[in-house]
């Protein structure tokens, strides 16, 4: 049994099904991310664990005990909100001390604990400031310290970084990871940002329509998406709708597409080939012999976006657009719209979804 | 250039149009005689003096104060739980009820409200019509939006729902949250709403005319009657009302700057309490 366990949990809001028989098991000390688009049920899951609402059916266990018969206070859960939700009339010190005071801890313990936390998050010098006098990043650090002050069994983070600008967000991401490691607190992190999810999690649960589509380590989710939704949500992908010809050859737009690993399907089955833009290689005409090469198609450049270290080029093959990422170079910059090029699909990295 | 000149000219005209009556009344309050001339003649402080010596006027002023304070008290008692429910429960029904209440003073003119009150509650045993309590109740209906709105704005600006959830998860109980978070953080809304309601109530005329008797007349009613008797005195009496409104407005402006009241900057831990 996991440290946090959700069994067949369902929740509706009127006619909208927020959670549909959800099962989730979170191990002690791990950082698990719920990743998904808005309305997928990730925040509802968090709020059910926190005790802000009750499920329509199903069971929730925290540390082996039935959470549904526990009050919010008894659950001992630390929460960090997207909008920080700091207490505006209280100083940084008193914000962090709030839970300890409410739980009637001794003055000595409060002082030591708050001091230690403020040093850990690096704002001990702001102890007597009001939240409104801090930057967004600092406010979210205080919110984190406040949640950790009660030594929670579980830490819940609800889109904690989405109100911050990119630079602060990237920095705080690693800090959250570090603090979570040091404190060893079991953490559930909610986000719609796939990069954030992949970079800080021990495991990622991709959610869609109140269900978990796939649960696994970040690399597994990224490299081996089990559904089209996951593949689409976790990264920019090309989806080639094809039919099987034989075990290792597909037909796509009248072209043959050779696979490295055969799929065991009867001929004429519909499949989707998922291929990342970085696995679609781009060549100028004449750069590569057109005869004898597998999975090489002729197309026209229909657009390009400079993304810094890489440049993404859209190539139209027949009527289908294929995205190809290349290292930014003079060769790529010189491509003109409408120019004929060759694309080679590296099917060894392709994923076939039936 | 011409456009700019035109803009300033029309703005000046507009402002003069609004302030001219107030300026004339302020001047008139110090004039000995004002009849058939553009400006009053002579200078006297007599009218202001009489304001506080003539029993009829200071009693009416006192009544107006009683009405205003009662209206504020009742409105707050209704509005604080209502604002809380509207912001925290996130119910669509409550929201639409709120938009309805906000429109009430516009949709139902005070004359209609006042006459309706007479129709509905003019029962001998009830002692509402002609008594202050009738006026208080009618004014409560009329001014409720002005108490409710700042409170809702206040709670929404705080994102009260997540503040409360954060506090509960940290282990606080209801009383602790009310004492340590709700009261200090809601003070600006309470003060702003009260000042606004006070200004509305003290100057309210239509309901007061309809619902009071000669023994329960409030200040604006008495003042209106004075205009037919003694212009100078009436001007002084009106000026008083103007001053009260100006101070109320300044109060709102000041309070809106002090939106973060009662901060607990110091912490007990530092002093070794």
Structural category of chain B is mainly alpha
* CATH architecture grouping of chain B: Orthogonal Bundle
In CATH, the topology of the largest domain in chain A is named: Rossmann fold
The percentage of residues in β strands of chain A lies in 35-45%
Q: Please give the share of residues in helix of chain A.
A: 25-40%
| Overall body shape of chain B | globular
Shape of chain A: elongated
Point out poorly predicted stretches of chain A. none
H and E order of chain B: HHHHHHHHHHHH
Task: Report, as a whole number of angstroms, the end-to-end distance of chain B.
Answer: 67 Å
In short:
The complex is a heterodimer of chains A (354) and B (273). Chain A is built from 10 helices and 20 strands.
What does this entry look like structurally?
The complex is a heterodimer of chains A (354) and B (273). With 354 residues, chain A is of the alpha+beta class. Chain A folds into 2 domains: 4-233, P-loop containing nucleotide triphosphate hydrolases (Rossmann fold, 3-Layer(aba) Sandwich), CATH 3.40.50; 236-353, OB fold (Dihydrolipoamide Acetyltransferase, E2P), CATH 2.40.50. Chain A is built from 10 helices and 20 strands. Chain A has helices at 42-50, 72-75, 92-102, 107-120, 136-149, 166-183, 194-200, 218-223, 228-234, 330-333; strands at residues 4-13, 16-26, 31-35, 57-62, 65-66, 77-80, 154-158, 186-191, 203-208, 211-216, 238-246, 249-252, 255-258, 270-275, 280-284, 296-306, 310-317, 320-327, 340-345, 351-353. Chain A has a 6-stranded mixed beta sheet with strand order 6-7-8-3-9-10, with helices on both faces. A 5-stranded antiparallel beta sheet of chain A has the order 13-12-11-14-20, with no helix packed on it. The mean pLDDT of chain A is 91. Chain B has 273 residues and is mainly alpha-helical. Chain B has a single domain, classed as MetI-like fold. Chain B is 77% helix and 0% strand. Chain B is built from 12 helices and no strands. In chain B, helix 1 (2-28) packs across helix 11 (231-257). The longest helix of chain B has 35 residues, at 55-89. Chain B starts with a helix and ends with a helix. Mean pLDDT of chain B is 84; it is low at 266-273. The A-B interface holds A 50-52, 72-73, 75-79, 81, 83, 85, 87-91, 93-94, 97-99, 102-103, 107, 110-111, 114, 127-128, 130, 132, 143, 146-147, 149-150 and B 158-159, 162-163, 165-173, 176, 180-181, 184-185, 260-270, 273.
